Automatic annotation (TrEMBL):
UniProt-listed Pfam families: Patatin
Short sequence motif GXSXG: positions: 70-74
GO biological process, one term: lipid catabolic process
Record's keyword terms, sorted: Hydrolase, Lipid degradation, Lipid metabolism
Protein name: Patatin-like phospholipase family protein
Gene3D superfamilies in the record: Cytosolic phospholipase A2 catalytic domain (3.40.1090.10)
Gene Ontology molecular function, alphabetical: hydrolase activity
Taxonomic placement: Bacteria, Pseudomonadati, Pseudomonadota, Betaproteobacteria, Burkholderiales
Catalytic residue list: 72 (nucleophile), 188 (proton acceptor)
Residue window of motif DGA/G: 188-190
Segments forming domain PNPLA: 39-201
Taxonomic source organism: Undibacterium rugosum
SUPFAM superfamilies, A to Z: FabD/lysophospholipase-like
Amino acid sequence: MLVFTLSACVTSGSAPTPVAPVVNTVPVPKAARPVRIGLALGGGAARGFAHIGVIKALESQGIVPDVVVGTSAGSVVGAMYAAGNNGFTLQKMALDMDEATISDWSLPLFSKSSGVLKGDALQAYVNRMVGQTPIERLKKPFGAVATDLATGQAVLFQRGNTGAAVRASSAVPAVFQPVRINDRQYVDGGLVAPVPVRFARDMGADLVIAVNISQTVDGQSGTGTIDILLQTVSIMGQSINQFELKQADVVIRPDLPSMKGSDFAGRNLAILAGEKAAMAAMPEIKQKLKALQER
């Protein structure tokens, strides 16, 4: 029947009109471009507990950083996170931590020592928390930023003893003694990279989420010696911080107006402040992540 109908429509001496086949096309969705997420954790002593809250919030939204870089307190949290501990485990570690386990006083206090804390205890604590794993064998790529005392240059530790690198990154001048690694001395990375955004880029991050926990100069005069020293480092890093944070895709600023760097008792409030700040930044994070995936 079909052949008869078609032939009847053909006039004498003319070629049959070709019939185009009907093809049902289904649009193929464009595959999301893989985006390497970097987390840059800044320094701020006890205020660094806020980093844990940020990590918890990110994980709750399915956002898992691929690269972690930390300065000072950020290197402590960053190392333990890179070792494979999730946000809830980090919170338990933080709440269980006894401040005395990271404090080893150099006695007598007014000896020729260049710091009141030696730092051995902090190094041992970090190594214990990461299972004695060197940096290059951690589960996530990790870097700790310190300052070369001789040159004033920033140094990124990506290999070697994890605890020693974190100790160097956290060696606030006059609080901790400088750390000697391979015949060079290192002090707190906050002097040159308070929030190590550019190092996250150097380690291959496409999207950098920066967490700034530094104290604001206003209203943070401090009375104790340790608080004054921590505030001094924070003041020195203000201008560097402003430049560096401009290179981040998203900046998270936990609200810790009255928390001093020596306030280890406020760790739970700091964690909550980190969670709250990260959740407030979540729409921006997701929007920028999606834009990069679709590029």
